[in-house]
Design a protein that fits this description.
InterPro entries: Amino_oxidase (IPR002937), FAD/NAD-bd_sf (IPR036188), Zeta_carotene_desat/Oxidored (IPR050464). By secondary structure, the chain is of the alpha/beta class. The chain has 13 helices and 20 strands. A seven-stranded mixed β-sheet has the order 8-7-16-17-18-15-19.
């Protein structure tokens, strides 16, 4: 069996298939893991100790990631609680606030407690939660966008710009100017599923102890053949399997293959793709996010009370930016303060704002850009593939690690793999409070 792509989908497919088959894992990049990207950095100045810092996949939770949790348990990968909170900083009106940090975070900006438009925003958050739950209960119209939904319900422009767009743009790493084009039914279902349509009752968010690379290493160490830095150029279907041609023009036969890449990449390596493959995979658009790992804390809110794990920055009060600008405080998310005297930040977009002297690494990450057209194509994905070829990727779902893992299992099972048996207990650090 061949698995092409070593992100969460490919790794999960390979893990399941390897129970009963000999698996060869191909990865175009020199590093396996995709968005599971850990940087081993100096923990303290003048010390040889290192700390694992993540710049892609960072958190999961104990409620809506069952497939990933089972994978971690089988691998013996340890996890720990994360600090999950989000702030919004507007350079236009000066507003800074943070959710999940109590009144100190909500009213971090002087005068916010007596600001009519900000107090209205807080009231509209509760109204949005209530209306969203009601809409889900009776069914949201197909094809309706978030912008249409908010407009019809009469939400203020201030609420849309300072709460709704930051939330969508930060969660999906999408450009703010397309956030309102998201299919509202799909978006509301995600928010409800993750406990984000209520002030209380959110799941417990967790992070992989030592960095997400720990689970990548655990899988690849147990596979018979792992080939990083070996791009696949074509996959050709034959009567009894597939032929895989790599970048060095080596051609190998396999009984079957999982293509676990982004949709456009899958389409580019398919030899003689079908009309449905062209139509469906070609409709699944992605956005490219320029990402910087650094130590420049000026990208965080100026007021410490407003600083959170996710920090969204707006250049003005209007929704006009074509690039998301959000900075993740990794010390909070990964609980790094006990291990390092440095503060690590990952910023998506706005790389020119980061002090060049504090840049550690730059990356490009692609994320699904959801739209009614994307959703329509997504609903046809189940028609693709056969006993020789299966497709996997987080684009089969909401675009997150759990979606990638679920699609990886489904692709493996389509090719005859099975993932049955008891689920082992999840490993947690000693003394960790759950």
């Amino acid at each position: 069996m061949a698995v092409i792509g070593s992100g969460i989908s490919g790794l999960t497919s390979a893990w399941v298939l390897a129970r009963d088959a000999e698996v060869t894992l191909f990865e175009a990049q020199p590093r396996c893991g995709g968005h599971a990207h850990t940087h081993e950095l100096t923990a303290r100045r003048g010390s040889a100790a290192v700390v694992g810092v993540d710049s892609g996949f960072i958190v999961h939770n104990d409620r809506t990631y069952p497939t990933l949790l089972r994978l971690f348990a089988e691998l013996g990968v340890r996890t720990q609680e994360s600090d999950m909170s989000m702030s919004v900083c507007c350079e236009g009106c000066g507003l800074e606030y943070a959710g999940a940090k109590g009144l100190t975070g909500l009213f971090a900006t002087p005068g916010a407690v007596v600001s009519p438009r900000y107090l209205r925003l807080l009231a509209e958050v509760t109204r949005f939660h209530r209306l969203a739950r009601a809409e889900l209960a009776r069914g949201v119209a197909d094809g309706q966008t978030l912008g249409e939904f908010l407009g019809a319900a009469g939400f203020s422009r201030y609420f849309v710009a300072h709460f709704m767009v930051p939330l969508v743009a930060a969660v999906w790493s999408c450009p703010p100017d397309v956030a309102l084009d998201y299919p509202v039914g799909y978006l509301l279902a995600f928010l409800d599923h993750h406990g984000m349509l209520t002030v209380f009752g959110s799941p417990t968010w967790r992070t992989v102890t030592g960095g997400s690379a720990r689970y990548v290493e655990a899988i690849t160490a147990r596979l018979p053949s792992v080939r990083p830095g070996v791009p696949v150029r074509t996959v050709t279907r034959t009567t009894d399997g597939v032929l895989v041609r790599d970048d060095a023009d080596r051609v190998e036969p396999f009984d079957a293959a999982v293509i676990a890449t982004h949709p456009n990449q899958a389409l580019s390596i398919l030899d003689r793709p079908t009309a449905d493959e062209v139509d469906i995979l070609g409709a699944l658009r992605y956005s490219i996010n320029h990402t910087v790992l650094h130590t420049d804390t000026s990208l965080l809110p100026r007021r410490r009370g407003a600083r959170a794990s996710w920090n969204y920055r707006m250049p003005s009060c209007t929704v006009q930016a074509d690039e998301v600008l959000v900075s993740y405080d990794l010390n909070r998310l990964q609980r790094l303060d006990a291990s390092t005297d440095r503060r690590f930040v990952v910023t998506l977009g706005g790389g020119s704002r980061v002090d060049p002297g504090q840049v550690i690494a730059t990356m490009l990450y692609d994320h699904p850009q959801y739209s009614p057209e994307f959703r329509a194509a997504q609903q046809r994905l189940h028609t693709l593939g056969d006993h020789r070829l299966a497709f996997a990727g987080a684009y089969h779902g909401w675009g997150f690690h759990e979606d990638g893992a679920v699609s990886g299992v489904a692709a493996a099972e389509r090719l005859g793999g099975t993932w049955s048996g008891p689920v082992p207990p999840l490993l947690r650090p000693a003394g960790n409070v759950v």
